[in-house]
Design brief:
189 residues, 2 domains, 7-stranded mixed β-sheet, 6 helices, 7 strands
């Protein structure tokens, strides 16, 4: 008799535990769906980068916790450069980008270097070591870059004064690439 009662109690506990697990999974799924909808709403204005099409707008924090919108640069030519400190080609192209930026920043040109998935401290350490002077934006979960269609680093998107994508460059920028691919757009302004 005692054994049957213990088995019945154990079965009841297992049933309760299974019920709690199911409720927990349900709550988790509801939270994930809510986060997904929130993320979708935040990134709806940004479009996948397609040459000749509008990119839309996004906002990210810079290294000083200021919220920066792409639309803040409307009327300028903006090179959005995706990078990460763990990416050797990203690091290799930074001196060329900095030199090109210094030569052209007075010509209605800006570089927004968007860090892909790293912390503010990691990005700041890189800036201290490299000495780049263009704005660094933080995309800590890389969701904004993903929404633009960027899935490999480095990738750069050149956006015109009207917000349309002028050019997409996948991979490392060499100095001659910048001159050949970006400079013609700056001259025409």
């Amino acid at each position: 008799m005692k054994t049957k009662f213990k088995q019945k109690g154990t079965a009841k506990k297992k049933s309760q535990r299974n019920w709690q697990i199911l409720v927990g999974i349900g709550i988790f799924l509801i939270i994930m769906a809510g986060l997904s909808l929130t993320h979708k709403a935040e990134s709806e204005s940004i479009q996948r980068a397609v040459k000749g099409q509008p990119l839309g707008d996004f906002s990210l924090l810079d290294l000083h916790a200021n919220e920066i919108h792409l639309s803040d640069y409307r009327g300028k030519i903006v090179l959005i450069n995706s990078w990460a400190s763990w990416c050797p080609p990203c690091m290799a192209e930074m001196p060329a980008l900095e030199k090109f930026y210094q030569q052209n920043k007075g010509h209605n040109f800006e570089i927004l270097a968007v860090n892909a998935g790293e912390s503010q401290a990691t990005a700041q350490n890189f800036v201290r070591r490299s000495g780049v002077s263009f704005p660094i934006l933080l995309d800590e979960d890389a969701s904004t870059l993903t929404a633009m269609g960027i899935n490999g680093y480095p990738t750069s998107i050149l956006v015109g004064p009207d917000g349309n994508v002028l050019h997409i460059h996948i991979g490392l920028f060499f100095p001659e690439d910048l001159e050949k691919e970006i400079s013609p757009f700056l001259v025409s302004q």
